[in-house]
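Q: I have three molecules that I believe assemble together. Could you output structure tokens for the complex as a whole instead of separate predictions?
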Amino acid sequence: MNTTLLSILALLIFPGGLFLLGYGLAYEYVDRKLVARFQNRVGPRWFQPLADVVKLLAKEEIVPHGVQRGLFIFLPVAALAAALTAALYVPMAGQVPSYSFNGDLIVTIYLLSLLTICMGLAGANTIDRFSVVGATRVLTQLFSYEAPFLLALLSPAIMAKSWQISEINIYTHNNLWFVLTQPIGFLVALVGLMGKLELPPFDAPEAETEIVSGALTEYSGRGLALFRLGKDVELVIGLTLVAAFYLGGIANPLEFVLKTLALLVVVAGLQSLFARLRIDQTVGLWWRLGAILGLAQILFVIFWRLVLR
Amino acid sequence: METRKSSEKFVVPIGPQHPALKEPGHFEFTVDGEIVTGASVRLGYVHRGIEKGAEDRTWTQNIYLLERICGICSHVHATAYVLGVEKLAGVSAPPRAQAIRTVTAELERIHSHLLWLGVAAHEGGFDTLFMYSWRDRETVMDLLELISGNRVHYSTNVLGGVKYDLDTEKMDAIRRGLDFLEERTHHYMKVVTTDETFLARTRGVGLMTREQAEALGAVGPTARASSVRRDIRIDAPYAAYPDFPVKLITDDGGDLLARFVVRLKELFESYRVIRAILDQMPEGELTTRVPRRIPAGEVISRVEAPRGELFYYIKSNGGEKPERIKVRTPSLCNWGTVVSVAVGHKLADMPMLLAGIDPCFSCNDRMVRINRGQGAQFWSWENLRQYGIEYYR
Amino acid sequence: MTIGVMLRDVLKSLFKRPVTELYPFERKTVPLELRAELTWDPTKCSGCQLCIKDCPAGAIELVVLDKVNKRFVMRYHRDRCVYCAQCVQSCRFNCLNMTNEQWEHAALSKEPFVVHYGRDEDVQFLLEKAAKEGVEECPDQPTDPN
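A: Yes, here they are, computed for all three components at once.
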């Protein structure tokens, strides 16, 4: 009984559910504000992301012609659910993950990809041309950054000799920060995260000047709100993962806030520095540069473990 | 869900309403995956009947009507018209008025080119450059407001002269503004020509050879970026340009990068010309008298708008109102270049390619004769009226 | 290979105030040359109506009460005006002018945009006449000068 109650609390309040949604919206605000300040603008007020979501939730949801209705409604829910579930395995706010088992790193990465896949499916589900082009781009981009991103997260795992996020977290906490010893992996992981979240310059899948809103063009109201919340949640989880793996682990809430915020500043800076990459350039960049760097990194780590130790 | 046959063409429509377009126009790109295999353009969404309206207004009233053809290059429209009417009337505005017209025109070119830089950067997803170039554009907007009292429709021209004078205080303000802008333009030149992510979007994109540009009748910076030596300010100087010549800026790149470079270099040329005019501002009157009835005759007036050659044909029958005014705007000449170079490019390049000619849709929506297959179809005013009555019945 | 050329701008801006003007709270000073509201001096007007002929927007009407004694009332439609100042240019007696005072151009109805200029008693006379007739003269039709 008690464990059930705790599980429900973990799912609904912390670290899943309410906490994560609120935190995700807060980070969306920080991100938008930072980008605005980088561009010498004022930026939104603190409640703007929340206001956007409330407005979208209150709006009529239009189901366009030619879509499979069930899938159209189900996909945003699945996307958000996957993102929220992923939160259970990461050391959110420096706490011990609610659920933890050996190999949960792979599960988390899988759950994080689910959001992107849902978006791709949502785009392919409609017959809108912009959505279809957007869906193609979403999935193309997924296949390009996913491998380097995974490789970048694996090298700390290999160093820690564990596939369990909580154990890697403890290992990194007790060792020199990996950002110093494995800067390439850190860079690939961070930029991979930006690709995952479709932040500029990797926003080709939703490039508004080309394909309006990409895969989500036909979404309005609730569906759009859920997708946006899912992205916000994924932003928090992604930053937590990178901070836990490369910035010396997350031991307490203060560390959590400071380290993820520091990463967010870097991410916002990278967002405002570059022109959007075309989708072929994105793929080229990831496979020619990202994957090779990630691979070199992991080979080096394996070599280090096998030979030098 | 409908199934789509693979042989069927996949057409991506851009417009009439689309985030990439600031004004309505319709483009259809046939794509194969991401590669564009065909392009077509359809205009006419913002036809406002200005040419017809001009026939119903007096010579004076028309200045303000024609100024409103375009919000960005409003002053050159009025200048082209006013110069034409003055030629018909056989008068010429005093040198000081011509100089002030030229200063305003060049300030307008600066604001237009900076605006374009921002828009083009935005189409390429480089929002930071967009924000910064528009922030700095406010400087020149403030200057225009300072000298004319208005940010958009300066209403500088009257028949036979200009409305306002430039005193030393304003000239100093302009010089200070230009100093700041020149420094910033150097910076943007560096960004545009060295930033690798941006170069990846502009270098080699939309390549147009000189022969193509000549054949398609491109004008303005679009043509000059393909090393076509065409600039009305040099070929047929008007207003104060005979006394203050500008240097022709060309680039032989022919791609989007060259269009960026040409426009930014033109900014430096504008700064130089404005400074030269301010330093040697001719003294004298601001206006001369122009009769209310313009003698019968017809005239062609050409000026170099920020986007290229602007062409006015004005016909008078000796009355208080013009018999006919025909406007051909530079955007119209440049559409052909977009459609013909689009094929083979990525879909992602299309917005930048469209923005590359600095299009102005409301400028170019007036009657065009399209030769499609056998001959063209013409509708007279009476036909149109009848059609309208039938349509709304 | 240079990337991130705008890094310096971006970093500088982080520690600078945004340039955005918070419009309703902060207002810029009005430019001296601003062409704002039209004003009319009834004492100088000769009733030549050149301004009305030249106005591209049909924003001015002149109501002639008594041509011989030069009793005119000018009805000015601020909502139609395009603020080009052509009328100021056209007037040979300098009785038209444009102020450079800033004012908000928004209202819930069209009435506040119609302004009558003239001697007080003339305006009074015109308004009373309009009220007596019950209906406002159709504002779309230029008033017959006779």
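A: One point stands out. The two ends of chain C are 78 Å apart (CA to CA).
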